[in-house]
Amino acid sequence: SLTIYSDDQTAAQQLLHDFIPGETVFANTDVWNTLFDLICANYFIGTNSKISLWAAIFRKTIDHHSYVYLPKQMKVAVESNLHNVGDAMNTYYY
Protein backbone atom coordinates (compact mmCIF):
# COMPACT_ATOMS: atom_id res chain seq x y z
CA SER A 1 0.00 0.00 0.00
CA LEU A 2 1.06 3.59 -0.56
CA THR A 3 0.45 6.45 1.86
CA ILE A 4 1.15 10.01 0.78
CA TYR A 5 1.61 12.57 3.54
CA SER A 6 0.68 16.06 2.43
CA ASP A 7 -0.90 19.14 3.90
CA ASP A 8 -2.52 19.74 0.48
CA GLN A 9 -4.16 16.53 -0.73
CA THR A 10 -5.63 18.16 -3.84
CA ALA A 11 -2.24 19.45 -5.00
CA ALA A 12 -0.60 16.08 -4.31
CA GLN A 13 -3.28 14.23 -6.29
CA GLN A 14 -2.97 16.63 -9.22
CA LEU A 15 0.83 16.41 -9.25
CA LEU A 16 1.03 12.62 -8.85
CA HIS A 17 -2.15 11.42 -10.58
CA ASP A 18 -0.29 9.52 -13.33
CA PHE A 19 1.98 7.70 -10.87
CA ILE A 20 -0.17 6.54 -7.96
CA PRO A 21 -2.31 3.42 -7.73
CA GLY A 22 -6.02 3.67 -6.96
CA GLU A 23 -5.65 2.29 -3.43
CA THR A 24 -3.37 5.13 -2.34
CA VAL A 25 -4.15 6.70 1.03
CA PHE A 26 -3.60 10.42 1.61
CA ALA A 27 -2.73 11.44 5.16
CA ASN A 28 -2.66 14.85 6.77
CA THR A 29 -1.61 14.31 10.38
CA ASP A 30 0.27 16.41 12.89
CA VAL A 31 4.04 16.65 12.53
CA TRP A 32 4.92 14.13 15.27
CA ASN A 33 2.62 11.40 13.97
CA THR A 34 3.80 12.06 10.43
CA LEU A 35 7.46 11.85 11.46
CA PHE A 36 6.85 8.64 13.41
CA ASP A 37 5.07 7.05 10.42
CA LEU A 38 7.85 8.11 8.03
CA ILE A 39 10.52 6.68 10.32
CA CYS A 40 8.70 3.35 10.68
CA ALA A 41 7.67 2.83 7.03
CA ASN A 42 9.26 0.00 5.05
CA TYR A 43 10.31 2.44 2.34
CA PHE A 44 10.53 6.21 2.50
CA ILE A 45 10.35 8.48 -0.54
CA GLY A 46 10.84 12.04 0.60
CA THR A 47 10.70 15.50 -0.85
CA ASN A 48 13.02 18.49 -0.58
CA SER A 49 11.69 19.37 2.88
CA LYS A 50 12.85 19.57 6.48
CA ILE A 51 10.58 16.75 7.60
CA SER A 52 12.05 14.49 4.90
CA LEU A 53 15.55 15.36 6.10
CA TRP A 54 14.63 14.54 9.70
CA ALA A 55 12.91 11.30 8.67
CA ALA A 56 15.98 10.23 6.68
CA ILE A 57 18.34 11.05 9.55
CA PHE A 58 16.25 9.15 12.11
CA ARG A 59 15.68 6.18 9.79
CA LYS A 60 19.39 5.82 9.05
CA THR A 61 20.37 6.33 12.69
CA ILE A 62 17.96 3.61 13.84
CA ASP A 63 18.68 1.21 10.96
CA HIS A 64 21.61 1.80 8.58
CA HIS A 65 19.95 -0.51 6.04
CA SER A 66 16.58 1.25 5.88
CA TYR A 67 15.42 2.36 2.44
CA VAL A 68 15.48 6.10 1.78
CA TYR A 69 14.76 7.86 -1.52
CA LEU A 70 15.30 11.62 -1.69
CA PRO A 71 15.76 14.36 -4.30
CA LYS A 72 19.36 14.88 -5.46
CA GLN A 73 19.30 18.33 -3.86
CA MET A 74 19.12 16.66 -0.43
CA LYS A 75 22.30 14.59 -0.82
CA VAL A 76 24.72 17.08 0.75
CA ALA A 77 22.42 17.80 3.70
CA VAL A 78 21.80 14.11 4.38
CA GLU A 79 25.42 13.08 4.07
CA SER A 80 26.69 15.96 6.21
CA ASN A 81 24.27 14.97 8.98
CA LEU A 82 24.98 11.25 8.69
CA HIS A 83 28.77 11.29 8.43
CA ASN A 84 29.15 9.28 11.67
CA VAL A 85 26.28 6.87 11.07
CA GLY A 86 27.97 4.60 8.55
CA ASP A 87 27.53 3.86 4.89
CA ALA A 88 24.69 5.09 2.75
CA MET A 89 23.43 1.61 1.94
CA ASN A 90 19.91 1.71 0.50
CA THR A 91 19.96 5.50 0.20
CA TYR A 92 19.04 6.65 -3.29
CA TYR A 93 18.68 10.08 -4.86
CA TYR A 94 16.31 10.85 -7.70
Quick rundown:
The protein has 94 residues and is of the alpha/beta class. Helix content is 40%, strand content 17%.
Widest sheet, order of strands: 3-4-5
In DSSP terms (H or I, runs of 4 or more residues), the helix count works out at: 4
> Quick one: overall form?
globular
Query: Pairing-aware structural class of the strands and helices?
Result: alpha/beta
Q: How far is the N terminus from the C terminus?
A: 21 Å
What does this structure look like?
- With 94 residues, the chain is α/β, with parallel strands linked by helices.
- It contains four helices and five strands.
- The chain has helices at residues 9-16, 31-40, 50-62, 75-81; strands at residues 3-5, 25-27, 43-45, 67-70, 91-93.
- The strands form two sheets. Strands 3-4-5 form a three-stranded parallel beta sheet, covered by helices on one side. The chain has a two-stranded parallel ribbon with strand order 1-2.
- Strand 4, helix 4 (75-81) and strand 5 (91-93) form a beta-alpha-beta unit.
